[in-house]
Amino acid sequence: NSFQMINIDPYPQEIMEKAKGIHSSISLPPSLDSVFFIARMLRAVNDEMEVRRLIDEILLHRSLLRYSHENEETIYDRLFPHVYHRFSVSKLEGSPLSGNLHVFVQRMKDVHLRDILSTTAASQILHAYMALQEIFGRTIVATERKTGISSAIVTILDLEGLNLTEFLNPLSPNCKIAKMIVSLWAEYFSETLVRILIINSPGIISIMWQITRHIVDSRTANRLLFLSSVHQLKEYLDPSAIPVAYGGTWRDDSGFSHQPIYCTTVPKPVLPEDIADHDLVWRKHGIEKVPKPSQHSLKAKKQVDIRVCVPHSGHLVYSFTTSCSSPSSGEVIFSILSIENGKEVIVSPPFKIISITVPEQGSLPVIKGEYIIRFSNPSSSWFNSKVAISHQFVSPSEV
């Protein structure tokens, strides 16, 4: 049924003209430099100011988290191994095309989200997801350069082995992290990843949609397709872009995949010794007694600034948790800024987060001057978001 094959609707001339206008007035890094990169944003939001804001935020994140110049395997193995090694994913570099679309495979077999969340802060998973979208973006821009037409990503999501009960409660850790990931996809990348083909669902479709409604907004839900059989993949994708295990001809014998017929890596299990030590970030800096946290309550659309005077070079160590009396709220936007010549300069990118199982923590290299740890509440809910944060400046001599 070739009429069902997934492709990208051509961009209207109006969007392309606007995209060219923005493209000529901003500087995109070479790996993302495509007028289609901007057209994707415009199709998603159709607001020039908003598109500029989204692009600025994506570029700031990749720069401050230092994945802008790293290749795919370095991002997986060196920058975010504690995340990627727990998941089962395919490699995009050199992946086959279905039409002008790249296919990404993710398997949930032996992936235990609840265990992963007991070892890894939610923000690390979200930062790794932003880096994955960077890989998506680079891959399709490289293809657009070769073909001259727009490209995108389609994901095959294999739910075999997924523990459905962990998703039945919308307030479960699994639902919370899934919701935050979907929120990033919807806000920044909805036209990069255009379809998710879901196979081997562990529950009947009506239950799957019920769970999906906890996690996915209605517009994003239209991107999901639940297939009743893996054989249906051929109705949507070229066989050369479907792994052999699912009835296609794609094998990954590059050495990246531990399962060449699935084209995916094998996830590392979470062992008892991997469970997060919440005080480790402090002990690494020679602090045996964690500072008592300060408590902050943020009303809707309000922010709180914690000012830190740094006497000389060293590290700013922090750890915080979030909470809310409303189970459906509680997100905060966290960032760290420095004051340079009277102006605020972002040194840790603004990021929307709810702490889940493990506290959010980090250690930021700093130089002499003033810094601001900033929390804001993006919600318009009646309920306040609460933050408990410990922080301390550490001199190199103390470590």
Structure commentary:
The chain is α+β, with helices and mostly antiparallel strands and 399 residues long. The chain has two domains: 2-274, Phosphatidylinositol Transfer Protein Sec14p; 280-398, GOLD domain (Jelly Rolls, Sandwich). The chain has 13 helices and 14 strands. The protein has helices spanning 13-25, 35-45, 48-64, 72-79, 81-84, 113-117, 122-147, 165-168, 173-188, 205-215, 218-221, 233-236, 280-283; strands at 88-89, 97-98, 101-107, 152-158, 193-199, 224-226, 294-298, 303-310, 314-324, 332-340, 343-353, 360-366, 369-376, 385-394. Strands 1, 2, 3, 4, 5 and 6 form a six-stranded mixed sheet that branches. The protein has a four-stranded antiparallel sheet with strand order 7-14-9-12, with no helix packed on it. α1 crosses α2, α2 (35-45) crosses α3 and α7 runs parallel beside α9. The mean pLDDT is 93.
Number of strands: 14
Alpha plus pi helix count: 13
Secondary-structure element sequence? HHHHHEEEHHEHHEHHEHHEEEEEEEE
What is the total domain count?
A: 2
Structural class: alpha+beta
CATH architecture of the largest domain: 3-Layer(aba) Sandwich
| Averaged pLDDT | 93
- Shape descriptor reads globular
- What is the class of the largest domain in the CATH system? Alpha Beta
The CATH superfamily title of the largest domain = CRAL-TRIO lipid binding domain
Amino- and carboxy-terminal Cα gap: 64 Å
